[in-house]
Write a structure and sequence with these properties.
Mean pLDDT: 93
CATH topology: Rossmann fold
CATH architecture: 3-Layer(aba) Sandwich
Strand content: 25-35%
Number of strands: 14
Shape: globular
Structural class: alpha/beta
Helix content: 25-40%
Largest sheet: 8 strands, mixed
């Protein structure tokens, strides 16, 4: 797996990361969603540098200009529901991309133990497509693996780009052997560990609840 860590270089990205973590600022759900969206835009710009391009003749009112245009065989799949603001940020930059949505949630069995349930999928064919898989929090990595096992039934995926806002080192290590070696991970920031409930420390809390309200 090829890891691209964006906060290793100082940029305005750090402002957005600080606000989604801040106990007071993150209480504003609309601002929280917008900050996730803006982080998605920055991650998308960096990701775009790794894609293939073809030269096309573009006709302006006064002539023809050759411009390198990004490949179009892309599918963006976001993990519901926390992935929706990140999805929008990516969609802002890849506006012609095909879209897919998949649900994945923790089903607690006993104590802190849980299974991952995947119950909803809406997706085009992934055969010979480049898959951008968006999930804001890469914690244990179990959700991403469960999602990938479902998605790879939809065709021979050409390449995978995982986009995350915050990842735990444990989660990254856990998913490495479950994805193809040429998979790219685009992550805004990486945290040190998980707590005994499998949440990222220091993290930011529950991204889905912060964006859309608490759930039963």
């Amino acid at each position: 797996m090829i890891i691209h860590l964006l906060d290793s270089t100082n940029s305005v990205l750090n402002n957005f990361i600080s606000e989604i973590r801040d106990l007071n600022i993150q209480k504003d759900a609309m601002r929280f969603r917008r900050n996730i969206e803006r982080i998605g835009e920055i991650l998308s710009y960096e990701l775009s540098k790794e894609l293939s391009y073809t030269i096309e003749d573009i006709a302006s009112p006064l002539g023809i200009k050759k411009i390198a245009i990004c490949e179009k065989d892309l599918v963006l799949c976001s993990v519901l529901r926390a992935g929706l603001p990140l999805h929008q940020g990516i969609l802002n930059y890849f506006d012609q991309i095909e879209n897919a949505f998949i649900s994945a949630y923790r089903h607690h069995t006993s104590g802190d133990d849980f299974d991952i349930k995947v119950e909803y999928l809406a997706s085009p064919s992934l055969d010979q497509k480049i898959l951008i898989l968006a999930d804001p929090m890469l914690a244990t990595g179990s959700s991403l693996i469960a999602v990938y096992k479902t998605l790879k039934k939809l065709g021979d995926i050409k390449q995978i780009h995982i986009v995350a806002v915050i990842a735990a080192k444990e989660g990254i290590e856990y998913i490495k052997n479950s994805f193809p070696k040429n998979t790219h991970l685009w992550v805004a920031t990486i945290d040190e560990k998980l707590n005994n409930k499998g949440y990222i420390i220091p993290g930011l809390g529950d991204a889905g609840d912060l964006a859309f309200g608490t759930k039963l």
